[in-house]
Design brief:
CATH topology: Alpha/beta knot
Shape: globular
Largest sheet: 6 strands, parallel
Distance between the termini: 20 Å
Low-confidence stretches: none
Number of domains: 1
CATH architecture: 3-Layer(aba) Sandwich
Number of helices: 8
Radius of gyration: 16 Å
Strand content: 15-25%
Amino acid sequence: MMFISLVHHPVYDRRGNIQTSSITTFDIHDLARSSTTYGVERLYLVHPSPLQRQVAERILGFWEVGGGKEWNPLRSQALEVTRVTASLDLAIEDATKLTGEKPVLVATTAKTKEGQTTFGQLRKNLDRPTMIILGTGWGLAPEVIDRCDLVLEPIWGPTEFNHLSVRAAGAIICDRLLGKRNI
């Protein structure tokens, strides 16, 4: 069983300072659609600010019970996997309750580091509940990465340019780990 947590704090800003980023509607919609397509159990939007969580809840509410459900039922269905939470600890707690065991925590980063887990290695070991942790802004702060069990290798295309949006990275990660393909 796979979970995704989209963490908004603590993350880096473009200057390398620790910050809190804002929740965006694009991230919510696109990551929910990818999560539902690939059978992710839950997508957690993790944000410490009550006001930012209210924004996310309002967006979700429009699609769950508001006019959005009738206007675009597929979008409404995709968003059903999404939960808003104040901390990564609460997301982990919820996933643990659902599965009966703490998920393997997998940090993501765009930086290559020694000891990272490859997509192939992780794909072969998805027999335990697993939580992929995505960072917004310019990536997860060390305090989040350090508490994870594994760090996933970066996504690289054929060029040296490596600056994907978090929602594009999330979709690629879902496909590489859960997609139907012959290996």
